[in-house]
Amino acid sequence: MNAPFTPPHPPRGTGPVPVWMGFVGERARTAVYGWSERAFTAPFIRRKVFGFNVHMPLDPDDVQRVMLDNAANYVKPTLIKSVLGPVIGEGLLTSDGALWRDQRRIVAANFAPAAVDVAMPAFARAAGAAMAEWRSGPVDMAVQATRTTMRIIADTLFAGDPRLTAEEPMRHIAAALEGISEARLQAILGLPRLPLSRKGRAGRKGQIYLRDTLTGSTRTGRGRLRWTMRRPSTSPGMRRRPMR
Fold first, then answer.
1. pTM
2. How confident is the model over 151-182, as pLDDT tens digits?
3. Where are the alpha helices (DSSP H) in the chain?
């Protein structure tokens, strides 16, 4: 029998890295960097981070219970809302209750198997375009993954809006992601959200750019955000109604 395939991954220790490492270096930039083997074998991990109890369900059934089946019982902490809110507003990752249910109901149709099948060509085009630009030598896969993800989002949801994929917006998006680590530390320590470092200031500028660009894109004819609602039909397949 063939051995299970294990894709390339950052180094994995036997246990979680020290808490402070989550706010500096590569660990601050890439969430999965520093994950230990326990994250792939244990069903549940609990840690204390600067006085906060952090619970990480890892078993698929537990994740489904927390994120879907019994989501109403797991209110998102204020810490998460204060860090992500300035970037994405009241979205799926920051909302609770009726607002979360309404948003999930709209988005869920786009992640149904049939909808994913329709989007597969866009995934393949984005991946192929990224690989075509690779040259011999080291490749920063974090940058490539972010760029490819934004290309897919732009092509499938925002009519290919170049404001999300050109070089300048990509720099803003990368800065916004990197700046979250400083904002996260300030939120944990109960400090005002002030960008103190150069990375923090660039991150704040990138967050404003990303939020304003997404807002502007949904309001223009070309970049109008298009969700697709699917309802049962008596004929084979599904009947689609775009919701704008």
1. 0.61
2. 888 888 777 777 777 778 778 877 877 777 77
3. 25-29, 60-64, 78-88, 97-108, 113-132, 141-157, 167-188, 198-219
- Tokens standing for 244? 């704008």
> Measuring CA to CA, how many Å separate 106 from each of 43, 61, 210?
31, 23, 22
Q: For the chain, which ranges sit under pLDDT 50?
A: 221-244
Residues 10 and 32 sit within 8 Å (Cβ to Cβ): yes
Among candidate residues 54, 22, 16, the one with its CA nearest the CA of residue 182: 22
Residue 68 DSSP label: I
* 90 in Cβ contact with 104 (< 8 Å): no
Burial letters 101-128, b for 16+ CB under 10 A, else e? eeeeeeeebbeeeebeeeeeebeeebee
Indicate the SS3 state at residue 192: coil
Q: Quick check: 227 and 107 in contact, CB under 8 A?
A: yes
Helix (H, G, I), strand (E, B) or coil at 240: strand
d(C-alpha 209, C-alpha 164), whole Å = 10
What letter does residue 67 receive in the DSSP assignment? I
Nearest CA to 49 out of 27, 17, 15 is that of: 17
Q: What is the dihedral of CA 161, 165, 168, 172, to 10 degrees?
A: 100
Beta bridge partners of 241: 229
Of 116, 123, 109, the residue nearest 239 (C-alpha)? 109
